[in-house]
Structures
1.
Amino acid sequence: MAETTQLTRHIDSYIHSSSTSTHQVSSLDAIGLLIKTNALTLEALVRELDVYLTSTDTVIRSRGILLLAEVLTRINSISLDSKTIHSLVGFFKERLADWKAVRGALVGCLELIRRKSDVGMVTGSDAKAIAQYFIQHLHFQSLGLYDRKLCFELLDCLLEHHADSVASLEEDLIFGFCAAIDAERDPECLMPAFHIVESLARLYPDPSGLFASFARDVFDLLEPYFPIQFTHTTSGDAHVHRDDLSRTLMNAFSSTPLFEPFVIPLLLQKLSSSLHSAKIDSLQYLRVCSSKYGAERIAKYVGAIWSSLKDTINTYLMEPNFSFTLAPTDGIDFPKNEVVIEALSLLQQLIVQNSSQLVSLIIDDKDVNFIINSIASYEMYDAVSVQEKKKLHVIGRILYIFAKTSIPSCNAVFQSLLLRMMDSLGFSVSNIDGLKNAGILASQSVNFGFLYLCIELLAGCRELVILSEEKPGTCFTILHSSSDFLFNSFCSVLAVSADRFPPDPDIYIGVKGLQILAMFNLDVFPIPKSTFENILKKFMSIIIEDFNKTILWNSTLKSLFHIGSLFQNFSESEKAMSYRSFVLDKTMELLSLDDISLPFSLKLEVLSDIGMTSMKNMLKILQGLEGAIFANLSEVHRNLTSYDTAVQLLECYSCKLLPWILENGGAEEFILQFSVDIWNQAGNCMDFNSPFEEKGLLDATMKAMKFSVGCCSEESQNVIILKSYSILSSRTNFQLNDVQRLPLTFEKYDISLRDEGILLLFASVIIALRPKTHVPNIRGILHLFIITLLKGVVPVAQALGSMVNKLISKSNGAEKSDELTLEEALHIIFNTKICFSSDNMLQICDGSINRNEIVLTDVCLGMTNDRLLQTNAVCGLSWIGKGLLLRGHEKIKDITKILTECLISDRNSSLPLIEGLDENNEEHKGDHLARKCAADAFHVLMSDAEDCLNRKFHATMRPLYKQRFFSSMMPIFLQLISRSDSSSSRYLLLRAFARVMSVTPLIVILNDAKELISVLLDCLSMLTEDIQDKDILYGLLLVLSGMLTEKNGQEAVIENAHIIINCLIKLVDYSHKTLVRESCIQCLVALSKLPHVRIYPLRTQVLEAISKCLDDTKRSVRNEAVKCRQAWASIASSRSLRF
Amino acid sequence: MVSGLINENPVIYERKQRQQRSTQSLPADEYTVEPIDQQEIFDHIRDIKDPEHPYSLEELKVITEEAVEVDDQKSYVRVTFTPTVEHCSMATIIGLCLRVKLLRSLPPRYKVDIRVAPGSHATEAAVNKQLNDKERVAAALENPNLVDMVDECLAPSFD
């Protein structure tokens, strides 16, 4: 009983449409659920609804019927017996005539038709009855959009699911459809409507049957829709895309060959339309229709299509790119154009389908014949007129498609056109054998046009060979016999002499031709091995000799790269062998040969490009490179050139080859060996002078070492670190094992240059290690690093930072007795006592009693009197801090505390002026420098480092660490700045905060824009004083301009508009950096968009300042000034000439 | 008075490719002076719209880069423009636009001289005199209709 009342409530809430739509939907769902759970039968529901279904009030009746229909959609998975379905069909069918309640009837019918056979389907006769009723009683045009859409869907479903039973309606059905689609314009209705055409065509396929007699009428209705074009952009969620609708119409067009007499003429006509989309659509439709209609029906149109295709390509084909890229291209490279692509694919379709017809068309074509007959006159690219050049390009593209599409068409064009061209150039086919031995052609017989077309033909033919496994017979024979001739002609284009310097396109043609000849595939290829080898020889001779002709040289190198990449998978083939012996080995020889004039940087370019062709080649190149590096390293002291050479080789290794290896994988063994060898070299240099004393070379070696180690796996890294540790401990004066026990005297750490080199190299290994790699004697190393850090060796500080970044924390549960945890390491770093026995002597010891003993942080705070020491300590601390910050460790708070204490400790005010004035000045300078270093330490903390602590070197990085750090530091800084009373500490605090702000993601800054803006402006005005701060200044300006342009920041900006403008006006003539002035003016432009009430009072001031910028020394600033002036001048309409 | 356009069917020329200047990014270049030159002046005025057609003066070849003479040392610039038809009554408006645009874009030290190309206009001398008469230019800019027209023509050149 309770269910009945519940049901009545649901029904009421739906029918009396007073409730909200979500409410109504939930009522429907509830009723559906009742039926699904068998709490309610459909009969009971109908009985309950009885009053509504038969009510005379049209609103209530229509709601009632709609409710029943909607309930049906919700129980489409519930099986219904055939009797129920039959009576439902009967009911809804009758209601179709009731136009006031038609929505419900349509939804109901549609739902019934859609039912699957396993849950009870509508019978054929019922379906037919619905269709009949539907056609007779519905007046489509008078219905609303959604109802019309339902109508089309209903018809579509009927044809889809009950085609056989509906088919007997014959004429009525087609008439009904025609009446429905007439004047329909809504894309949503057209989608199913077009689909109905397809179904109708499928239903009556007989060429002389029913549909044939109506084809004209149906097509007349469809024709106006082509090409699909939306005049209004659709809004709303259920919109149909133009492309989808166009595709559906295309399917309707191509649905039956019966449309052919109407469709093709229409498409041909529209092809000449000026509307871009019409052209593309016509080409697409033509392609699909011709494949659907079949060769026979299309045959009569081929001529017409051919000529309009030629026209279209002629109009839309752009100038080709005569340049080589590393990305492979076949044939000549043209800029992508949709129309051309579609046109060419239509052509391809036709060639496949109506092959013989097309072949005879092209052979007899007057444009083609014109080009071929006058080919002799196209000697050089520049000599061809623009019109004919265009024709040449079009014919080239068409020939390319012919050659690539099918074997018969390929043979045909080779046989007739290529030979004819050669004839018209005066090389008859019979002469070819003679030409073979004729050697290089005289330069006047070089012919651009001929070679251009040859390339397109060859490229097409090559693709055909790749795609189809068969060998095309005739064209191979021709190619085989003329390959030497072609080789010689391409070479002769490249022949450069004093009186003849070919323009770029000719060079391109020559190189490209040789490349395509060489790239003919492997063993099935018709080019004899000797020709292939000749090509490689030619290329290598260009590489070695013609390096001063940049374009030729670069193209040749790229070609060699392409050829080499081709053999990547066929390393055992005959041609790959020749490539190795002619190119790879020659390249290796380049390294050792000093007598050739090819500049060394170009040699390296060749080396890396050839190496990148395949892993195998790369390994070989790497070996050669390694040999050369070590040979040069040992020569460094005797020979200045080998110093440069070694640096360049190392750079090439770390910047070009290593990234490639990293991407392609697999050369780790080599990298490992290489790193170990460098260490051997470093160790061996003990007895004589080390090559690493030289700064540039040391940097290059460190870089190579860092990148190599970074690429390696943990196992290899373990090997390298052991090796390097053994060198470090045995070959230097550092006493790693004693360092923990003995209080060491300063003398022992007076590092020799050689020791420093090895230490730096070791630090670069540490920087690049993975977190899990085991470091031997880590305590000793930590001590060593702390001491050397105080000597000002920055990479050591970076290595220390990397170590604390990667060590396993105790909290992570890795309790291995021998592994040092992060906490222990931090204890060592921050609690190891450094002893100062006298003036500058420093010692390190644990727990020894010394009145001068202090720890690292004390040094940072300036407890010693040595300011340089303090600076070094602060710098070191910043890198350690960075390591901790990245992993989100708590200790960073202590570090920033020390740094900020450094900033605010103004010693000068407390130091009594007892010593001499000069001395005090010196002292002052040093102190300031150390504190400035502390301010800049914040830059180290926040910015992304290139040299260490990044993804490449496996740093542990916590997401959003910058944001976190900024939010924790901001209140501290704001408070300190507002409290600071001495000018120097205020300067340093602002400077430090400026450093932090300029690298923080803008989005965080925007959140606190209000509080930050005044500090930001303080920073800006303060930083103008020192030239060296110009980069920080620029960074801050970028932050400000971010605030001005983002919505979030604008509120804060509006309030402070006048102080911002005043600050910016002072900056517009900042003479030390153009970018500062430029972005300052841009900020002013952005400010002019603010509400006029706020900014109007400042207008005159801004305009005065800007008019000075019109006379700036830099053009970019002047241009910005003109814009800014206009923006500010037009705030108020003014008749004045100046403003 | 004929109410139609003065030149109904002007010839449209192609725009010249914007030359990319080699940008100065070297730190050593920070203090070197880049003088105002022909191309810079031309860039200021090339996009001014013709008063009666939706084309720029450059597209109509009313002005060309060669027609700009500039001497940065002497703070002097002269622009010679060629009206599309000899009897063009828009010549004065075009001249006015050029003058206003240059006054707004160049530093105050500059003297701007605008003139019609010799032989290109029926009342050449009168137009030249009108365009270079300070008083008359100032007076013209007091006229709200003229100022609106000038502003409309200048709008695209500020983008």
2.
Amino acid sequence: MNTRGLRSQLKDSVPVTGLCPQAGPYGVQDSLRRGFSSVKNELLPSHPLELSEKNFQLNQDKMNFNTLRNIQGLHAPLKLQMEYRAARQIQRLPFLPSSNLALDTLRGTDDSIGFQDILNDPVLSEIMGDPHIMTEYKLGVL
Amino acid sequence: MALSNVLEPAVSGFNFENSTRNIVLENGSEEGKIKAPKPMKTGTTIAGVVYKDGVVLGADTRATSEEVVADKMCAKIHYIAPNIYCCGAGTAADTEKTTDMLSSNLTIFSMNSGRNPRVVMAVNILQDMLFRYRGMIGAHLILGGVDCTGSHLYTVGPYGSMDKVPYLAMGSGKLPALGILEDRFKGNMDLEEAKALVSDAIHAGIMSDLGSGNNIDLCVITKEGVDYIRPHRESLYNYKRQAKYKYKPGTTPVLTKTVNQLELVHETVQMMETAGSS
């Protein structure tokens, strides 16, 4: 159940990835690629669920690892996180959609269906990034 | 079409890109504020009762879109599993999609484990799903079913709250329906009594609430199987068209007729270089 281990969450902070989204490689506003910025847009999410949804999988994993650590000791989440790291590296090229099958099997989400499987499936996306630019961005050369 | 401003692959799930634009539109113009279109609500009366051999669920069949009746024969009792059915009140699309996903998840579970799903599992999955979206998914549901542990009736609210009771009513017409249920419910009723009780409760909701109306559907779930009675009681006010409203051919008189012959003067073919992208 999702509510277990909530108390152990209190000390950890939720990574707020909403701040400074427009920063480019030099740490300032990347107008060429992200457009003009507005202070309000960067500080406040416009939808109450936006941040919580962006970080949902991260928070779930954190909560589960904390519970596992409390029950079985430090070794259990360490071993699991090593496997997650390995599974996360099995990806196709940056501009192609990856199935993430190994990661899904490890997480246990391969036998459940949620809104992330029905809505906005990246396989059916109508726009595609330019392969050269996306690969260069991934390698940090851009 | 490959866009050069897309640096990371698209994220699946809910897309919040337009929420800033929507807020600006709603608060924007001073003269007439632009209102967002309202979703179709079911404006319902749904009820459920546990009787001797199982569960009886009932629902009306009207779906409203603000003041207009959008659907006169809406099916509000949704299939979840062969032994579990769910009545949904609230936003029509939300109840449909949520119950569909719940049904898919339970089917995968029964394929994986070879067992029939239990009603508590459905309730737990729903609670997790609805709490995650903090009430933004407007689904007020009554789940009823018979499994290996007995007959159960649960209600799940849009924020993830749950209640397990022997008789229930939800929706905009729930207060009149609850009145009938509180008055005449007793434990271990037999089938005909239970069906009459649920039917009368829904009828009270239909009579006293504007958002409920038309026919009454019933669903009887027992260990042996399911009896989906649609409709159980039809409304007396079935609006049938009084006359045909099609126009006969020749109703519109033709006043004048002019014919212009187009002549083919000149024909050329030109090859074009289309701007091809990867």
3.
Amino acid sequence: MAEVKLFRTWSSPFPLRIVWALEVKGIEYEMIYEDLSNKSSMLLQYNPVYKKVPVLLHKGKPISESLVILEYIEETWKSKTPSLLPEDPYQRAMARFGAKFGEDKILPLIWEAFIKQGKEQEEALVAVHGNMKYLEVELRGKKFLGGDAVGFADLAFGWLANLVSVFEEVTGVTFIDCEKFPLLLTWMQNFMDAPKIRDTWPPRDKLITKFRALRETLIAKEPK
Amino acid sequence: MANSSSTDVKVLGAWPSPFVIRVRIALNIKSVKYEFLEETLGSKSQLLLQSNPVYKKIPVLIHGGKSISESLIIVQYIDEVWNSGPSILHSDPYDRAIERFWAAYVDDKLFPSMKLINTAQGEEKAAIVEQAIEGLVLLEEAFQKSSKGKAFFGGDRIGFLDIAFGSMLGWLRAIEKMGGVKLLDEAKTPGLVQWAECFCADGAVKGIIPDTEKLVEFAKILVKMKGAPLGKN
């Protein structure tokens, strides 16, 4: 029986953060795939508050919320390199701040741009571009947000590396253009290709099909 | 880094903000002297805009010239820097995960639902109040599990989740008064009722949480200014 189990879906980017952390640190784990339209009794038992993935089960104890799980992995497997967070408290605070910034200021706006059309989509893109400038500055002189190696903030932002191009293909709109955000695009490519990360991406064609269908459903529901 | 002059540590904040309260309690626990720079309601100082250009919000901790924002991140920073003082987070990684989970729950679910009580009316209000109480019942269960019979979520001493949730008690009481509702009560959340008393009486907390009346008056001013009773910090 595996000591570490991860509840995930095939497509959700949040459990992928945990896959990356476990892979990068070389921790053995078992994946349990959930169908969110038919949640297992185990998932409901282990995450009764949110009933969502990811859930990490370690020696039978469950942990939920992806950023909380990342901190747990870092603290539990302290001796397993690479470290996801720096030693210095100020640098750690900056990495945590970066992750929170992504959750608050980038992710919801990219999602908004994806599920909307016309003026609303434009407004979401303008807003997210304003926020992305901070990322572009942060990436100056660095391969990854964590420095030479992938770190906490990279794992938090990693979803950008594959989902943005999926969203661009489905909507036919450029979300991140290479003139304004050259460093961000380079980072996305570096992350996409990083060792231990590059083999974890869900199949692109399946993602396009899924998100195309999801967008159509959501747009159809919009009040006219 | 056990000692610092008070000019070395500054907190940009405002007395009503529960997020600012978190930072002040954490610094008190570590016996760190700091300069409190109060922001004026309705305007943002140059220092705030400079030190938190991303969110432009309080609290900001400025330590040795470096700025840190986001209250829960600041509290963890304080715990890590002043590590010779009493610990704020648990030492065990699993216990830390549990307290981080519930602290995020307070920010993502509980406090937002509490704030909605002020503007809601009739059936909608009743539904929101019920939702807030359900959340408090979840926290009651979490309290029973993590306190293990002691006074606080952190055990014998105030810890991370005590700070995250306890900082909200001033507004919780104000919302109860303004809304004519009871959120914490002996029947559904007996442990938390007791905990709230212990928390507010603690040396690190005394004098930091504003009186209910002051907050009610402040809420009225906010409504006049913005048309909304509570801003988010």
4.
Amino acid sequence: MEKPELVDDIGHPFLSDQTYMVQADDMDDDGEQLTAENTDDSNHDGDKMGIPLREQDRFLPIANVAKIMKRAIPETGKIAKDARECVQECVSEFISFITSEASERCHMEKRKTINGEDILFAMSTLGFDNYVEPLKLYLQKYREAAKTDKNLHTIHSNDIVFEEIPDDNYNSSMTGNILATDAGTTETVIFTYQQDNVHQFQIG
Amino acid sequence: MTHLPQSRVRTIMKTADGADNIGKEAVFLSTRATEMFIKLLVKEGYRNTNSAKKLNYNNLVNVIHNKSRYEFLEIVIPKKITVRQYKELMAKKENRQQDKGSSDEHSNSDNDENNS
């Protein structure tokens, strides 16, 4: 059927059926990274079983780092290659640094799992307290998205999906995006799409 | 908006001391914080270029070695010096040892250093 293919062609993150990212602003894109396997610690005990990390695993991908760096400077600015690599290394160091501090607090409180609060606390302690407020907002959005996703899963088994969704959501930016791709066939795409996945991005 | 891969962030977090179990929220916040960190470091580095418009390694070094919040990076990101500067540094060291009352032999070798 062409409709699922069309959906795949669009390739927009929210079209995958694993999506958490209903919110248009900053909760989109890398949702596919946020799979249960990736975030569930119990599946990753093997990570620390003495298996040395490959060089590339110790750092974040240079392309991602470079993109973010570019955004921090004016359009006309340039970045030297060794500056990019430098930031890439600094970033891994930063992550370990914050995590160490967070884990200390976690252990002090006799907990076994490092949570969001530990990270926020570490930020504050290590001189990045101006990050705390924005991070709290991100956390709030993240929790809301996670909550609605839980609701989605329960709705999914019923067929009251369509009744749950008010009409004006069809005019949201997401459908707007779909409409932008191909005016002619869009309508049909939406309808078929709705039957499979739409509840995932209509809510929130 | 570009984001960093949370799975990789998680891998890196696990290399930290004492990090056994890491919750989803912790990974998420660390990822966002890292993005903010990159922007901050780069902005400050760029300011250091004094409108030269190109961010170089040394700009980052200057920021890292002059701001206390980046102290944790000082070891990771060393200052770069030229061979000449290194030799001058070594010469200075020799001079100091000399002043501490060592023998004449040292002054001979010291001259050699200075001639380079």
